[in-house]
From TrEMBL:
<protein>
    <submittedName>
        <fullName>Trehalose-6-phosphate synthase</fullName>
    </submittedName>
</protein>
<dbReference type="Pfam" id="PF00982">
    <property type="entry name" value="Glyco_transf_20"/>
</dbReference>
<comment type="similarity">
    <text>Belongs to the glycosyltransferase 20 family.</text>
</comment>
<dbReference type="GO" id="GO:0003825">
    <property type="term" value="F:alpha,alpha-trehalose-phosphate synthase (UDP-forming) activity"/>
</dbReference>
<dbReference type="InterPro" id="IPR001830">
    <property type="entry name" value="Glyco_trans_20"/>
</dbReference>
<dbReference type="GO" id="GO:0005992">
    <property type="term" value="P:trehalose biosynthetic process"/>
</dbReference>
Length: 454
């Protein structure tokens, strides 16, 4: 095969952005084929840029374009983040529909497709990432590209009944069928999409993972994304990790640490999690002063109103819980609205007795896999995982919870805190094996194997 061309909203053009798992996976795929990475530069301008910024780094060619303020507003803030993100996470109540925003979204897809079409050569393969570019294959076909195009959706694909709330759903589905391979995080997502193709759009299941719809044949499969498992394990052994562990140790004393780490997003179930923590201290006064819950949640997308409201809600809830249960020498729930490095997180996870990963919906969720890899055999912590995270399909040895069930989540935290070390070890060993086997390299190879077979 020729070069790989990746398209995503943001690229890892900045070497610092290459630390995360996904960026590394895509980077490796591009490097080995002398590939190209196309996306937004992160800069905003007043008029549609005529040119692009092109540079090479370590054999990978970056092709970046600025967005106009208007494009940013319609494509990114409105359509991607206030239509697709909420709907795909089952939050029809938070979606705000707007035909103009869809037009802007389609235009940016088309503009990026033109940039790629001008540069792609026969033999290349295109790999498109995430919900910002659902229409990309159709746009690429319009500019004459005939080679293979794969798509991977990092977030959930909702039940068809929910997806159909999007006014432009038919247009989107038809455009998606221009892809050759569509990858989802979970079996559930794959089934939702197939059901939508068959029940709502007259598609036909060809029985070999391929579906025929809108006069096209598309391979639809689940490729659960993983992490750089060995790398994360090693991050826990660094000095930076020890320093973070020691720092939080000073605050903890001999209390047990329950930790949560999430982007501040309404899909992550943070208010529900805080309520469950309140319930735990209500039900178990014997834990007062003995447990410290720390939630790390850096604000994201703060230009979107729903995210500002979430921030206020969390401030209030944390204040109330600490007011109700705290004491002169004890803060029950600490909530830090900032981010930490991978090494620091690995150090904090290692100290933690319980990892709380309770999203209301999550494509995969990588934090739970990172939590597993940061544990040691001697004294492994317990993972509490939402049944609505894609990762729950793989990590059945975690304590699986319904994040809406406050009382049950509280009881599960109690179970985790009092679990004997033998059971903790047994569960952790199973989890670790899965996270190691289905790591980020497995994900990339299995996806690219299918794309190359097109
Ligand atoms: P996200 O919604 O961003 O990703 P997640 O999978 O948990 O969610 O990945 C977050 C990454 O950011 C993790 O590597 C985590 O360590 C890091 N992170 C989170 N909070 C942090 C903090 N306070 N400080 C530093 N780092 C922090 C989307 C989808 C997911 C899917 C991924 C990958 O929503 O479902 O798993 O893409 O496909």
């Amino acid at each position: 095969m020729g070069r790989m061309i990746a398209i995503s909203n943001r690229t890892a053009s900045d070497p610092k952005a290459r630390a995360g798992g996904l960026a590394v996976a895509v980077w490796e795929a591009l490097k080995s084929s002398g590939g190209m990475w196309v996306g937004w530069s992160g800069k905003l301008v007043n008029e549609t840029p005529r040119g692009v910024e092109v540079f090479r780094d370590d054999g990978v060619e970056f092709v970046l374009t600025d967005l106009t303020h208007n494009e940013y507003e319609q494509y990114y803030l409105q359509y991607a983040n206030r239509v697709l993100w909420p709907i795909f996470h089952y939050r029809v109540d938070l979606a705000s529909f707007d035909h103009k925003a869809f037009a802007g979204y389609a235009q940016v897809n088309q503009r990026i497709a033109q940039i790629v079409g001008d540069r792609a050569e026969p033999g290349d393969a295109v790999w498109v990432h995430d919900y910002h570019y659902l229409l990309m294959a159709d746009c690429l076909r319009k500019v004459g590209w005939k080679g293979p195009i794969g798509f991977f959706l990092h977030i959930p694909f909702p039940a068809p009944e929910v997806f159909r709330a999007i006014p432009e759903h038919e247009w989107i589905t038809r455009a998606m069928c221009a892809y050759d391979v569509i990858g989802f995080q979970s079996e559930q997502d794959r089934q939702n999409f197939i059901r939508h193709l068959i029940e709502d759009n007259g598609g036909e299941d060809l029985g070999d993972g391929r579906i025929r719809a809108f006069d096209r044949t598309v391979k639809v499969a689940a490729y659960p994304i993983g992490i750089d498992a060995e790398g994360f394990e090693a991050a826990g052994d660094t000095e930076e990790a020890s320093i973070a562990a020691e720092k939080i140790g000073r605050f903890l004393g001999n209390r047990s640490l329950v930790i949560g780490v999430d982007r501040m997003d309404y899909s992550k179930g943070l208010p529900e999690r805080f309520e469950a923590v309140g319930q735990l201290f209500d039900d178990h006064p014997e834990l007062h002063g003995k447990v410290s819950v720390t939630q790390i949640a850096p604000p994201s997308r703060s230009k979107v109103e729903e995210y500002r409201e979430l921030r206020e809600q969390l401030d209030q809830l944390a204040g109330r819980i600490n007011g109700d249960y705290g004491d002169l020498d004890w803060i029950p729930l600490r909530y830090l609205a900032r981010s930490y490095t991978r090494e620091e997180l690995a150090g904090l996870f290692r100290v933690a007795r319980v990892g709380l990963v309770t999203p209301l919906r999550d494509g995969m969720n990588l934090v739970c896999k990172e939590f597993v890899m940061a544990q040691t055999e001697e004294d492994p912590g317990v993972l509490i995982l939402s049944e609505f995270a894609g990762a729950a399909e793989q990590l059945q040895s975690a304590l699986i919870v319904n994040p809406y069930d406050r009382e049950r989540v509280a009881e599960t935290i109690y179970t985790a805190l009092t679990m004997p070390v033998e059971e903790r070890r047994e569960r952790w060993q199973q989890l670790r094996q899965t996270v190691m086997e289905y790591d980020i390299g497995w994900w990339r190879n299995s996806y690219l194997h299918d794309l190359e077979a097109v």
